[in-house]
Specification:
Elements: E1 2-5, E2 12-15, E3 19-21, E4 24-26, H1 32-37, E5 46-53, E6 57-63, E7 70-76, E8 78-85, E9 96-102, E10 108-111, E11 115-121, E12 125-132, E13 141-143, H2 164-167
Antiparallel strand pairs: 1-2, 2-10, 3-4, 5-12, 6-11, 6-13, 7-10, 7-12, 8-9, 8-11
């Protein structure tokens, strides 16, 4: 397993060992000991699976008092995966990174608690699965508008398909009192 650290402390790009032969391929999507060795030492309590059409954006989401770490991977298709630092006082507050995750590249992204997450489907459709370190609490959800100018994500679409909740999302500056505080040096 190859691990690439991103500009955000704790956000990891993970390339699992994939074993291929005439039958196809095999790989471990998660193995507790290996993930603990790379610093992901949280218990996953919920798995989510979505299917979305080209141009759909899901996010930018986080939970406030029940923050979730997420281990994201793509089962079919390809996504532009986005992680946003929403920790007040962080040197990288309101900055974002974008990663290409696909069924073909097998890459996974670990998003620790304290960061918001989103993705945009760039193939005809994509099926995305992610493990979460806390349960979903609908009343605790924080939704940031996809095109927030403070964050400035360079999305691969200009007119995305959004849920009603994501269309009604708010700007980061309107959510400051709800954001987690940075716990670093």
């Amino acid at each position: 397993m190859k691990v690439t650290r991103t500009k955000f402390d704790g956000v990891l790009l993970i390339e699992p060992d994939v074993f291929r032969d005439d039958r196809g391929f095999f790989f471990e999507t998660y193995q507790r000991r290996k993930y603990r060795e790379i610093g992901i030492d949280l218990d996953f309590v919920q798995d989510n699976h979505s299917r979305s059409a080209r141009g759909a954006i899901r996010g930018i989401h986080a939970q406030v008092t029940h923050p979730q770490g997420k281990l994201v991977r793509v089962l079919m298709g390809e996504i532009f995966d986005v992680v946003v630092d929403i920790r007040r006082g962080s040197p990288s507050f309101a900055q974002w990174i974008g990663l290409s995750l696909s069924a073909a590249n097998f890459l996974q992204c670990y998003v620790p608690p304290g960061f918001a997450h989103a993705f945009c489907v760039v193939s005809d459709f994509a099926e995305v699965e992610y493990k979460c370190t806390d349960f979903y609490h609908p009343n605790d959800e924080l939704r940031i508008i996809w095109n927030d100018p403070t964050i400035g994500v360079k999305w691969p679409v200009t007119e995305p398909i959004l849920s009603a909740g994501d269309e009604a999302a708010r700007r980061l500056e309107d959510l400051l009192d709800k954001l987690p505080r940075f716990e670093g040096q």
